[in-house]
Amino acid sequence: MQFIDLKAQQARIREAVESNIRRVLDHGSYIMGPEIRELEGRLASYTGAKHAIGCSSGTDALILALMAMDIGPGDAVFTAPFTFVATAEVISLLGATPVFVDIDRTTYNIDPARLEEAIQALKSGHEKRRPLPSTSGLVTPKAVIPVDLFGLPADYDAINEIARKHDMAVIEDAAQSFGGTYKDRKACNLGDVGCTSFFPAKPLGAYGDGGMVFTNDDAINETLRSILVHGQGRDKYENVRIGMNGRLDTIQAAVLLAKFDVFPEEIELRQEAARRYNERLSASAPQLVLPSVPKGYTSAWAQYSVLARDTGHRSALQATLKEAGIPTAVYYPKPLHLQGAFSRLGYEQGDFPISEECATRIFSLPMHPYLKPEDQDRIAQTLQ
Ligand SMILES: *Cc1c(COP(=O)(O)O)cnc(C)c1O
Questions:
Q1: HSE-up of residue 189 (Cα within 13 Å, Cβ side)
Q2: Does ligand 1 have an atom closer than 6 angstroms to the CB of 59?
Q3: Alpha-carbon distance 349 to 172, whole Å?
Q4: What angle, 0 to 180 degrees and rounded to 10, lies between the N-to-C axes of helices 156-165 and 112-123?
Q5: What is the pLDDT of residues 66-92, one digit of tens each?
Q6: 297-301-307 Cα angle (round to 5)
Q7: Is the pTM of this model over 0.90?
Q8: Ligand 1 centroid, distance to 59 Cα (angstroms)
């Protein structure tokens, strides 16, 4: 059994992938070929965002977004500590300060009430208040990066309202949520800028690295497209700002076009797989906390993650599953505020108790569109 079965998907789309790649080999536009614009157009209309800008990875999508918002030294960017390292890494990389905010215990996403508190605490000044980074007196709230963890969008109505009140930008880390929805709006189109990843294991994965940035703002779109290609101006050899090489490869766009043809159906298949897990596990494994999707939300089900009672219980379940040939994974075993990479921020154990507790209890079961009901039965029986 595979944790994410990319082979089953490939068997289905192999011919289309091969003919799309052959088309690139024939026209030879390996950089910024016509497949890039075609993919950008199709994903823009899928998400409802006015602009979509292909780029080299989900991490670079976040860097492009922060750079387009002119975020750097002296700026505070709020995000959750319970996420993949890239979310906060890009903030530090640009010289800005990540300010962590604990998550909601049922959605695993940033808690809007705590976000408001953290912004107030930072604004109210220099006195040391936990949990704030040790440089808190020197930084101004500039942006928030909500993460749509495991494919489930964060609470954007609440987050956007808080951000507007404090004149902050909202950069959606939709690396895991492409295909998810929030109150009839698609993930990637829920803040000022949305960032997704085409890492092979993500809901819409390429056969290599790739990413995309989404926005409805014409000026941000122009800035993003300039930064994407070395800060270019009107022509290739005029450079108006410091940028990067952040382009998506034409061959990856060609692969993604073939994958996107089956993507909407795959999102439906993921809903069915999640429904089957919910049904079987609530009967056979009442000791687990199953994922909960609030009304009006759809998860892209990048992961199906459950909580065990504690670390010992989790280890025992993972070992039993492994023995039965069932792979599992832990996303994420260590919250970012406790990672050595962020030690400079001065956070301590106990600063974000919900993230810390989830890190000790959470694990993910196999999840992909081609997961067989029989396999899910066997997983449920083994957990029982
Ligand atoms: C995968 C991921 C990223 C980074 O995407 P890459 O394409 O691997 O650079 C960023 N944030 C989250 C939440 C992710 O899961």
A1: 19
A2: yes
A3: 27
A4: 20
A5: 999 999 999 999 999 999 999 999 999
A6: 95
A7: yes
A8: 6
Cα(238) to centroid of ligand 1, in Å?
A: 31
Q: Is 243 exposed, middle or buried (0-12, 13-18, 19+ CB in 10 A)?
A: buried
Q: Angle 310-202-26 (CA atoms, 0-180°, nearest 5)?
A: 160
Residue 324 confidence class, pLDDT cut points 50, 70, 90: very high
Cis-peptide, bond into residue 207, ω within 30° of zero: no
Query: Is the previous residue joined to 131 through a cis bond, with omega within 30 degrees of 0?
Result: yes
Residue whose token pair is 């439906």:
268
187 close to 48: Cβ distance less than 8 angstroms? no
The DSSP 8-state label assigned to residue 190 in this structure reads: S
> CB within 8 A of 167, min separation 6: which ones?
none
129-140 tens-digit pLDDT: 778 888 767 789
**Is the minimum distance from the CB of 20 to ligand 1 under 6 angstroms?**
no
Q: Are 293 and 305 in contact (CB under 8 A)?
A: no
Entry field: residues in the chain = 384
Which ligand 1 atom lies nearest to the CA of residue 202? Answer: 1
Ligand 1, atom 1: closest residue by C-alpha: 175
Which ligand 1 atom is at minimum distance from the Cα of 197? Answer: 7
Contact indicator for 248, 212 with CB cutoff of 8 Å: yes
Tell me how far apart the alpha carbons of residues 214 and 152 are, in angstroms, rounded to a whole number: 18
Write the single-letter amino acid at 284: S
Q: Which DSSP state fits 36? A: H
Token pair belonging to 24: 């690139």
Q: How far apart are CA 242 and CA 228, in angstroms?
A: 10
Give the position, in ligand 1's atom list, of the atom nearest the Cα of 62.
10
